[in-house]
Amino acid sequence: QVQVVESGGGLVQAGDSLKLSCVISGNIFRINDMGWYRQAPGERRELVAQISSDGVPQYLDFVKGRFTISRDNAKNSILLQMNSLKPDDTAVYYCKGAVQTYAQAYWINYWGQGTQVTVSS
Fold this sequence. Notes:
This protein is mainly beta and about 120 residues long.
């Protein structure tokens, strides 16, 4: 009943920008935190940026000052504006939302299928 749709990945050069979008839809009562994670081959998945339902963000130290996360509660969506991209930003980026549906009284984390971001040197 819940779908997570991501878009905006691609292949860019170092110094370029990308904007990732994530929209969560379905039988949704409310969504708590939403965020972006990334995973490079052979590496652990890490939190890139997260934003609370009240709009308070958290960022991985490596992306502070370059990435900005924003949220539109009316659309159940988040955006990740990524500027000054570096080769080490190359990874599959996954959107996650902590969702409570009308059919359940507890929170469940829903994940998108991932979108590839590749930054060439």
